[in-house]
Amino acid sequence: MLNILILGLGQCGNRVLDSINHEAFGSNGTFAKYYSRQKFPASVKTIAINTAINDLKGLRDTLAEDRLHVPHLHGVGANRNIGKKMFEENKEMILGEIDKRGSFDLIFIITSTAGGSGSSFAPLLVRELKHTYNAPVVCLAVLPFRDEGAISLQNTAFCLRELVEMKPTGVLLVDNQYLKKYAGDIKSAYDKINATTARRILFLIEALNSEMLMVTDLGDLKTVMSGGVGIGTMGFYESTNGTTVKSSILGSFKPSGLLFPANVYDEGARAMLIIKGDKKYLDLDMITKTVDELSSEVGQVFKGVLVKKGPSKVLSLFTLNSVPELERIYSTAADVIRVEAGKREASQRQLNDAFAHIEDLEPIY
Ligand SMILES: Nc1nc2c(ncn2[C@@H]2O[C@H](COP(=O)(O)OP(=O)(O)OP(=O)(O)O)[C@@H](O)[C@H]2O)c(=O)[nH]1
Ligand SMILES: [Mg+2]
User: Fold this and answer.
1) Counting atoms of ligand 1 from 1, which one is nearest the CA of 111?
2) Is residue 87 in contact with ligand 1, taking CB distance under 6 Å?
3) CA distances from 44 to 2, 5, 158 (A)
4) How far is ligand 1, taken at its centre, from the CA of residue 148, in Å?
5) Ligand 2 centroid to 50 CA: how many Å?
6) Among the atoms of ligand 1, which is closest to the Cα of residue 72?
7) Residue of the nearest CA to atom 32 in ligand 1?
8) Could you tell me if the CB of 19 is within 6 A of ligand 1?
9) Which residue's CA is minimally distant from atom 6 of ligand 1?
């Protein structure tokens, strides 16, 4: 049995984690959590970490003992410098809580890149966890809507760079902007994005922890995540009307199923495919042939096949050789940082000019 740790940091990370816990409670009804424990497809420990107690209180499916408050007002107000300081000051406590959960074979860290708490804790946690545990650390980084403002963009730029510098096993991107199409309003977009991300993580965990007909494992996952620039995303496809397993596999590379905009054929470095479904849908020869064909375009493709009741479902997980969308984010972030710096300088100058009027004067009473 694999031992897995999932950490959800900051509001966004907490909520994706809550969604994972929700899925794991299954369909036992709303009150299942009061008398049962989550049914994970492996031994999974989860911790929601946040500086804002209200965010933690707002979670619905995460057990009270799995909510860790790092006291600081009500969040760090998107200020990553304060976030880093809070992490360092509370490091022993945070790592102590993690340590109580035992040892791990695989660790996930989930965070938004745009906020203050999660985005500053994540790189530092990668550093600490790599020291302490001999387990792959995979980060799920949620990118903001592009119109969230200057601070969101600059946080994203610095958070991602720091994450990569800490050398986690890999970074999987989930892009709110790209996934906005799922829903009209922001709240339901969040819910859908969180749920779809949660299901994919659980799908991956289930596969890694199961007897597979064709086997892919943690070692393969590490190899895939270290491909290209170490940054990638996930795709998914569920067959609805008896499509062939080949179409399902190819479907999992299509833009409609990805969590971040990428052209897997042009930009993919390495991939892992997990194919699950009723035995009658799983034509092993066709799977092998399709994956071999894909391997000639995307450097290396690992495959796992899991026999389970139901239509065929395919999860694809891959790393990229180049990430043009990130290039765009960084160039916009640089522009907004320059504009902000210019504005601040101008306001400071104006204020100094105002003060200059009374430079040689004293108040008279
Ligand atoms: N997908 C998704 N994104 C979210 C959710 N909640 C917030 N976000 C995104 O997360 C970013 C804001 O970061 P938060 O996670 O709220 O920030 P935080 O880590 O709590 O940091 P502070 O509040 O500044 O202490 C924005 O880009 C939001 O669009 C959510 O439930 N799902
Ligand atoms: Mg917050």
Assistant:
1) 15
2) no
3) 8, 6, 30
4) 11
5) 7
6) 25
7) 190
8) no
9) 12
Cβ of 8 below 6 Å from ligand 1: no
pTM greater than 0.85: yes
Tell the CATH superfamily of the 3-209 domain: Tubulin/FtsZ, GTPase domain (3.40.50.1440)
CA of 125 to the centre of ligand 2 (A): 17
Q: Is 122 in the pocket of ligand 1 (CB under 6 A)?
A: no
Contacts of 125 (CB under 8 A, 6+ apart): 7, 9, 87, 94, 109
Q: How far is the CA of 361 from the centre of ligand 1 (A)?
A: 49
CA distances in angstroms from 32 to 8, 16, 28, 202, 317, listed in the order given? 22, 19, 5, 19, 31
For the domain made up of 229-320, give the CATH fold. Answer: 60s Ribosomal Protein L30; Chain: A; (3.30.1330)
Distance 14 CA to ligand 1 centre (A): 9
* Domain map (residue ranges) of the chain: 3-209, 229-320
pLDDT tens per residue across all 365 residues of the chain: 899 999 999 999 999 999 999 998 765 444 444 445 567 777 899 999 999 999 999 999 999 999 999 987 777 889 999 999 999 999 999 999 999 999 999 999 999 999 999 999 999 999 999 999 999 999 999 999 999 999 999 999 999 999 999 999 999 999 999 999 878 888 899 999 999 999 999 999 999 998 888 898 999 999 999 999 999 999 999 998 778 999 999 999 999 999 999 999 999 999 999 999 999 989 999 999 999 999 998 989 999 999 999 899 999 999 999 999 999 999 999 999 999 999 999 999 999 999 999 999 999 99
Work out which ligand 1 atom sits closest to the CA atom of 15: 31
Helices assigned H by DSSP within 52-182:
53-57, 80-89, 91-100, 117-132, 150-165, 176-179
DSSP code of residue 137? E
